[in-house]
């Protein structure tokens, strides 16, 4: 299936949509263009319009493929069921880090994954502010601007830096932890030498399908906290990513009850 996809064509679509629908609204949103779709979860006009245009343009790339977009699922949760069926599915997060975006902070990104028969085959993360496009195809590595990406090597717990929302369990056991409001940027940091590990509790497919593939193709080790493999669908529980299996196991012992 992936041989039918022009990866650069999709990259161009992502860049075009970001340039037309996201960047012009960055730091230019009015109060009426931001709302709370659920308690504590913002959506902006940029999220809605970027997802709408991406959905339309991706339909021409792979006719017949389903689309599971964050905002479409917010309006109709039954769309998530497409990930339980066979066939090709585009998984779209039009603006990951919406709260940052709405506050005028630069840590936001577009995330796109192509899932085929329940397996993520290609993932894209695009940072519109820097222009960085990170891409992974299953079995072909993770790349940015012609440079192959690799995770940091593992090491003793006290040398590791991570992204964790609730970090009390790790206090004093690792070098540093924090969270800055964008799963996409956490994944980018994992494959560009800024983070060793990350732990997530909100496991929506648009946040993680592309990033998990990019991390794995960069040599990382990621599993659900119970040790089972991640699949691109809605999950309960938590997700832990680390440089290798030994680091993952050591970190897990600090995170589980």
From TrEMBL:
Instruction: Cite the PANTHER family for this sequence.
Output: INOSITOL MONOPHOSPHATASE, INOSITOL-1-MONOPHOSPHATASE-RELATED
Q: Which organism is it from?
A: Magnetospirillum molischianum DSM 120
Q: Which controlled-vocabulary keywords does the entry list?
A: Magnesium, Metal-binding
InterPro entries reported in the protein's UniProt record: Inositol_monophosphatase-like
Q: Which cofactor does it need?
A: Mg(2+)
* Stored Pfam families: Inositol_P
Highest rank taxon of the organism:
Bacteria
Provide the binding site for Mg(2+) 1.
70, 96, 207
Which family would the database say this protein is a member of?
Belongs to the inositol monophosphatase superfamily.
Show the GO MF annotations: inositol monophosphate 1-phosphatase activity; metal ion binding
Protein's name according to its UniProt entry? Archaeal fructose-1,6-bisphosphatase and related enzyme of inositol monophosphatase family
Where is coiled-coil annotated?
Answer: none
Is Magnesium given among the entry's keywords?
A: yes
**GO terms classed as biological process:** inositol metabolic process; signal transduction
Any idea which positions bind Mg(2+) 2? 93
